[in-house]
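I am writing to request your help with a piece of structural work I have in hand. The matter concerns a single protein, recorded as an amino acid sequence and a row of backbone structure tokens. Could you please explain, in whatever detail you think fit, how the structure tokens follow from the sequence? Thank you for your consideration; the sequence and its tokens are set out here:
>
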Amino acid sequence: MRRIAILATLVAIGLASRSEAEQGSRVITVVGEGQVEAVPDMAMITLGVTHEASEAGEAMEQVSRRTEKILVRLTTLEIETKDIQTSRFSLNPVWSNRNSSTGERPEISGFVASNAVTVRVREMTSLGQVLDAVIADGANTFNGLQFLVQDPKPLQDEARRRATADAMDRAAQLAQAAGVTLGAVQSISELGGGAQPVRMEMAAMRDGGVPIAAGEISMTASVSMIFEILD
């Protein structure tokens, strides 16, 4: 009998704890999204020179000469040195007979040298002219073109404000639809966000050079909020 009484007490305690947990979990959880669009005011391009020759020294010399010419041209186009950075430099052998089925030994038939440079262009109207100029000076590889804003913080702040307002609006709608009273915010956390290119009306820029479609940058933010239910 004593064992049965102890088990009954434990069950009662468990049910009471469960009831308290259920009441404590009377909340509304929502996720809010915020987005802000802006015209980019900076471009980042990765360009370079690749050259193949029979001798490693010749391949390196050709790449170095053309790269130096490109760097000088960039400075004449008012690109600051802080906005020019070597991002990759390589020298690799070119093999022949590597996949031969006759059993011949692979041999080095030449060398490929490459030098890649990342450039930030802060005057967007000159981007086409910059691309034209570096191509004329020997750039023969392009590994990316990215549009950015130089000061993203105001856009990020506004996206967060919109995400928070969106979450609060969703919570209010859910509470009204459920016939309950929305209480205070219990917790709020940021889920992520960042700059994303969006497909909107494009404006091609041609300043005597390569036509470039800048479009717009979309800054996004996402927040999760938990609200108390009062009744």
Observations:
- DSSP finds four helices and nine strands in the chain.
- Residues 23 and 229 are 10 Å apart (CA to CA).
